[in-house]
Amino acid sequence: MSASADPILNVEHLSMHFGGLIAVDDLSFAAQRGHITALIGPNGAGKTTVFNCITGFYHPSVGMIRLAHADGTTYLLERLLDFRIAKLARVARTFQNIRLFAGMTVLENLLVAQHNPLMRASGLTVLGLLGLSVYRHAESAAIDKAKFWLDRVGLIRRADDPAGDLPYGEQRRVEIARAMCTDPVLLCLDEPAAGLNPRESAELNELLLGMRAEHKTSILLIEHDMSVVMGISDRVVVLDYGVKIFDGTAADVRNDPKVIAAYLGVEDEEVEQVEAEVGL
Amino acid sequence: MSQALEIPSRPAIDLFGALKSGALAAIVAFGLFSLLIGVRTDQGPTGALQIEPRLIALGVICAVAFVGGFARALLAGERLDFASYVPEQIKVAAAQVGRYFGLALLAFALIEPVIFYNNRYILDLGILVLTYVMLGWGLNIVVGLAGLLDLGYVAFYAVGAYSYALLATSFGWSFWICLPIAGFLAACWGVMLGFPVLRLRGDYLAIVTLAFGEIIRLVLLNWQSLTGGPNGVSGIPRPSFFGIPFADEENGFAATFGLEYSPTHRVVFLYYLILALALVTNWVTLRLRRLPIGRAWEALREDEIACRSLGINTTTTKLTAFAMGAMFGGIAGSFFATRQGFISPESFTFSESALVLAIVVLGGMGSQLGVAVAAFAMLGAFELFREFSQYRMLVFGLAMVLIMIWRPRGLVATRTPSVFLGKFKEVPAEAVAEARQ
To answer: What value does the CA radius of gyration of chain A take, rounded to a whole number of Å?
Structure first.
């Protein structure tokens, strides 16, 4: 992970204040293109807040978030509206508490994700209303793409079922498939392994590694499940109380004293020493 | 799921509990009605007011409440599964009929003027029902598909009606020119309403739309110089058969087609006109549901945040839903104006909005067939009870309560997916998000 690598996402001096509460404090990190970057930390460390800033659901109080496409186009995400981040900058995300369109079928969920290309093909609805073949071709291509991703996450047999009827683990996979249907350059996954059993977590690892290898998707990941974090992350960023306390490889993170202190606490006599080191 | 859990824990019939609940119901009824029904003020022989107790009426009410509470407690948990008593063959047959019910209804709507050609009352009722079917279908886009609770839909109906009335009376423009203009103007008002309420949902949205409906009505009432205020607009041109007037004259409709003049021609024409307009509304809605915009509307109803995370511009999506619904409301309004020949703000009160919304909710939000059936049932019932005008609202309210208990998601509660990979399957009602959240 040398500095000469090609970062897809650069977060610089990001701070997010809610009234007097500082959820994220002067956070800077970079995610490399084609890598899986994990963002970990104890509960309430500000991980999801960082995600919400990146995907435009929050407007950061201070800081800059720069996304660079492979062709050199850069987007300053803190200046874009949420839906434009997904549409133009092509950042897709999933949610900690799954947000599927529960009453619509799995296939419809994946078609909604392809809204913008389909909208163009339907001539902003006008051509589609007239039933022109342009739109029909676009729709069957969209269905093919949805089928591809459903096949990929192993849910093709559930395509016509309401998404809300699926078991939890399958809903998580549908959400990832739905996010991938937007052709993202950066995929932000908020606790994708939460509530999954060990076998499902292992399958998730396979899926994410496969996505990185075949589709060149860069992945930013919030996760508590260490089997996922350690198994697939190229780089780990650790947050505690909104402050970055570690940034390095997965191998190094388990031996870092600050990270251990953040997760497990320290002996009473060491508190002052550790706090001084961390800078609290 | 919860049913399966409840069954084993259900005890044997609890007679004492049922008696207790019956007694409780009777006490509540006594408290409620002891003054409302139990006593009556009347003029005495000297002209002074005197109180006349009506103990028998009160007793009957309390007894009814007791029996009701008793029966409810006895049957509580015992889900009356009428479906299990119906033989399988009949169920299959009913499903077959159900599949063609929409077509049968359409066929009936097409031949109705032929069957009832001599019955002016039925024809007028048919026109009224179809007007509400069209309004219901238009509102269904906003409430049923996009999940935006709109209590001021009548505003667009009014905008359409006044647009046609004023354009036709001031400039003498023909119905067929005014119709799209009225639709367009109503759609503009839909967007205008949409902007301030973009961030609102559920109850808050309902309140603002309700106010919007009232504002439009009050403007129509008070802008004397333009709308004529409470006097309304009269002398609105009646529709012609594409330029040929329905009149007893040489170049009238009857003479042109070699028929004997009859005022029914115009009524039948109006009937087919509103039928065509309603069917166009239906066709467009069904078509839009399969297009990305329609799927975005439904996705918006299910989860707005997820929509934004997928790059859907929720602002334009909401505004198009409002505009689309308003446009059909406006077109229905123009039809109303040309049919009546006279409009005034009185025709556009909140109760109209409530009626159209009731049709949509009763029909099953999002279901086209359900809305049509509900409009038919609702207005049909209104007419049936016309003679008991005093009890009409009472019966209406009771019917609504009962229907909401039995079919809380409306008559047709299943949702048909817009696209299939394999076999046709419907989404059960429990899965679909409701409009109010």
So the answer is: 20
